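I wish you would study the pair of lines that follows with an eye to the fold:

===
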Amino acid sequence: MLYFIATAPAGAEGVIEHAAAAVESALTLQRVLIAAALAAISMSSVVIGAWLGLTFKASDKLIANILAFGSGALVNALAVDLAYGTTEHLIHEGLSNIAAWAYVAGGFLAGGLIYFWANRYVDSRGGAARHKTNAKAFVLDHKREEAAELLERLGKNAVLRSLPPSEIDSLLPYIREFTIDQGKTLFHQGEMGDAMYLIDSGRLGVFSTSQNGSENASHRIAEIQGGDIVGEMALLSHSGRSATVIAETPVKGLRIDKDDFEHLLNDSPQMRDAVRKLAEHRTLDSIQQQAAILKSDDWAKMATESIRRLSAGEMAQGLSEHAGGSPLAIWIGNILDAVPGSLVIGATFLGFANFNPVLLISVFLANLPEAMASANTMRQAGYSKFKIYALWGSLCIIAAISAAIGNILLPSAPVQVLALCEAIAGGAILALVAQVMFPHAYEEGGDVVSLSTIGGFATAFLLTALDIHH
């Protein structure tokens, strides 16, 4: 009995401690689940956006302005609520202003570099189709790579090198391969120019026919080999061929038909003016003197860099062949886009009393139009509706898991560790805004998106201002 009396208080204390621990554990679990739910809600806009993009035809400008609005809100959340708030907290914990800034700035830089290289790697493996801007850039890079060799060959020609490099992109669709067997005639003297030929390999003889008494005499006056061009003067001057050209070996090369070339000149006033100036010089030497102003390698490089246009057919074909090739890469890329924001939401949620919803709302608004545009891009790449919804829908689950992990691990970590992790995630989000959201918004919406961006920033800042205590 005495033993019972002596030990009863200790047992009661144990019960109380266990009860308190159970309550604390329940509250912690509830907090983690709420943080996960909030992150899933912020990411649910990708599913809504995908449905809107596949169901309705929203204008590109509307999507661009919504995206700009969300991007502006994100910038506010990153600058004011994350960067400034984290720095202020570090200073209150005893760090100097410079040390606190170094933590946050270094974290943002690290996060930006991580996103930059990871995003580049994922896109190169077939994940570019998840973003319209990335997909276009990826296909455009492939077009430049494929055109580089051709442009290098074109740059060796004096006539073409005298044309504006920025206009050569329009010329590429009109260039065709040709072959001619040994002994065959490429064209006859006196014929009207119908094409110009760029020789890649083989040898041709140039023969001039002249009247010698009552007979015509043919003389071999020149030789054309790989890297040379033939037939350009008749094409430019609209005159007859000055000689007959015969293949002395099998020949391969490129040709540009006169009708295609003239059609191109009609569509390009700048190139038409350049060709008119060239036509005024009747000798190849005069043209070569003008072309010598720009070296062939420099011209080819400028022409390659000037390729900035993609037709709808080129975009669809490029997506099908390259950017849409890997559902796994797109899924990994989606994870790369979703995790940083979800980690921050999870790490900063300790309860509704001190929870600022600015980042959550900003992520929701920024993802909505991006998913609308990307759904159509993925559809062009050949993905079914089910696969599109599955790829985007998985982000909600991933966001919830990321937020839960952030909420479990980071709040109890040392303040410097928490600040650094939040800053790294913030840098990754800022890199996403700069690489994907801003370029997409401006390209599709024009300069008016600057006003939408300011509107998004101001709206998010209003929520921040309302949360400031007197």
